[in-house]
Amino acid sequence: MMQRRPTVLVFAGLDPSGGAGLAADIVAIAAQGAHALPVITALTVQDNDRVFAVEPVAPELLRRQAQALIAKMAIHAVKIGIPGSAANAAVIAQLIAQLRLAHPGLPVVLDPVLASGHGDVLSRDDAVLALAPLLPVTTVIVPNGPEALGLGGEEHLLAQGCKNVLVTGGHGEGEAIINRCFDDAGGEREWRWPRLPGEFHGSGCTLASAIAARLAQGVSMQDALDMAQAYCHAALAGAYAIAPGQLIPQRFND
């Protein structure tokens, strides 16, 4: 019999450098044994360091991209990067509600990218307000420390409907990176990873996509978080350069 892979419906922007956004999502998801269904939310002008422009696609075009896939394929998880605009975020939330009519437990992983590593804006609208429709439908949100603060902190995110909040510590200091996960049942977990030298382009995309791919395979939340973080750390440890500046994670499995 022909082998089938679980699918992850991905909403994200197109990064011409190939280091973040949909390019990162596709490879990271494939490396976990799942298949990405990439829906473009925005075209960007960027390199491996800076974002110079973001042009969101029209909300109706976003909807049509996704509907063509939903009409034919089983969707096993959803991963969301930049929506590009508040209108696009609203459409994505509507599509998730539609999918959950048939699949109530459909996992949704949100990488709430508020700005590039250099502070470049990644949404035509206020990025925090644009994410508001997505929070109540999110199974796991994966902000870094500054993003978590910008979104009101883990308690606020849980109150808005996020089931799990994984706050990554890469923007902190010290020899160890500490990632902490808070859930809506009051649970808390912590992981420690050695801090690696250099800065990386698309590390958040890599982690969120890996979590989504594992959840698409039916892995438990605890195991999905463990496996995805181990994969992401290995990808960063093997990162390579394409130009001066941020390194590109090595997302292919050996």
What does this structure look like?
With 254 residues, the protein is α/β, with parallel strands linked by helices. Helix content is 35%, strand content 21%. It contains eight helices and nine strands. The chain has helices at residues 21-31, 59-70, 86-102, 127-131, 145-150, 154-159, 203-216, 221-237, and strands at 7-14, 35-46, 51-56, 77-80, 108-110, 140-141, 164-167, 176-183, 188-194. The radius of gyration is 17 Å and the shape is globular. The mean pLDDT is 93.
Give structural attributes.
254 residues; alpha/beta; 9-stranded mixed beta sheet; 9 strands; globular
How many distinct helices?
8
* Largest beta-sheet characterization: 9 strands, mixed
- Helix fraction, binned, reads 25-40%
Instruction: Give me the side-by-side strand order of the main sheet.
Output: 3-2-1-4-5-6-7-8-9
Shape: globular
State Rg. Answer: 17 Å
Write a brief caption for the model.
By secondary structure, the chain is α/β, with parallel strands linked by helices. Helix content is 35%, strand content 21%. It has helices at 21-31, 59-70, 86-102, 127-131, 145-150, 154-159, 203-216, 221-237; strands at 7-14, 35-46, 51-56, 77-80, 108-110, 140-141, 164-167, 176-183, 188-194.
